[in-house]
């Protein structure tokens, strides 16, 4: 005892504790298993699976609880009992269905809690996404209302401008008629002026012919007659 360390004492203590637990649990299970049970027809219908062995049940339980050191001690002692032939197969046979059902229900409960956490996280994410979507929806709705107001304003302005155009159209027609009359008058005046200038030019060109027919009376002043003819043409 003096040569053992604290870790060895702790391991031995765990070993003894696990041994006692296994013995108590095995006795309880065997008593419950071999007691006068009267399974109902419904239970026999639903529980048609193969019952689980005690050692497998204990290993699974210890592993799920994270008791690795106790599991190692149990496996070592269980193997030692098997090697020595001290394990009574009649006394320790199978685990009752109730314990397997409890263990299975605990696994389902654990999975259900994990799924609940995942669903809650997904719900929070969906709620945040919904809030963002509602904000985006409100923004686009306000923008749509503003666009509708601008469209109504533009329609009103277009209607006003169309009414003004309808009002100005008769005045524009009258002004166009006046403009056409003025253009016609201007064209007539231009034709009259051109005809007048053309008549003056023909009379000035016939004068030298008369002078040539009369003779040499105009030879002394030819340049003056040409200058007077050119001045008349420029005047026209």
Summarize the structure in words.
The chain is an all-alpha fold and 236 residues long. Among the domains are: 7-33 and 49-95, no CATH class; 110-192. Helices cover 83% and strands 0% of the residues. It is built from six helices and no strands. It starts with 5 loop residues before the first helix and ends with a helix. The model is unreliable at 32-47 and 218-236 (pLDDT under 50).
Number of helices: 6
The gyration radius over C-alpha positions equals 63 Å
Class based on secondary structure composition and strand pairing: mainly alpha
Largest sheet: none
How much helicity do the residues have? over 70%
- The average pLDDT value, as a whole number, equals 72
| Beta strands, count | 0
Q: Determine the N-to-C terminus distance.
A: 154 Å
**Beta-strand proportion:** under 5%
Globally, the shape reads: rod-shaped
Succession of helices and strands: HHHHHH
Unreliably modeled segments: 32-47, 218-236
């Amino acid at each position: 005892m003096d040569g053992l360390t604290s870790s060895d004492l702790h391991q031995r203590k765990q070993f003894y504790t696990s041994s006692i637990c296994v013995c108590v649990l095995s006795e309880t299970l065997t008593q419950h298993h071999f007691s006068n049970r009267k399974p109902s027809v419904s239970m026999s219908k639903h529980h048609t699976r193969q019952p689980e062995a005690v050692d497998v049940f204990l290993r699974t339980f210890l592993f799920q609880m994270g008791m690795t050191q106790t599991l190692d001690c149990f496996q070592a002692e269980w193997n030692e009992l098997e090697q020595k032939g001290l394990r009574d197969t009649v006394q320790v046979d199978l685990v009752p269905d109730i314990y397997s059902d409890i263990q299975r229900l605990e696994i389902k409960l654990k999975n259900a809690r994990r799924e609940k956490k995942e669903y809650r996280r997904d719900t929070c994410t969906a709620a945040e996404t919904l809030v963002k979507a509602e904000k985006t929806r409100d923004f686009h709705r306000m923008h749509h209302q503003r666009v509708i107001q601008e469209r109504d304003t533009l329609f009103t302005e277009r209607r006003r401008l169309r009414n003004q155009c309808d009002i100005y159209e008769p005045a524009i027609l009258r002004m166009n008629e006046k403009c056409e009359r003025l253009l016609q008058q201007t064209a007539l005046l231009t034709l009259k002026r051109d005809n007048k200038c053309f008549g003056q030019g023909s009379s000035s060109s016939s004068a030298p012919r008369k002078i040539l027919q009369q003779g040499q009376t105009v030879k002394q002043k030819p340049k003056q007659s040409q200058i007077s003819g050119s001045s008349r043409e420029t005047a026209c």
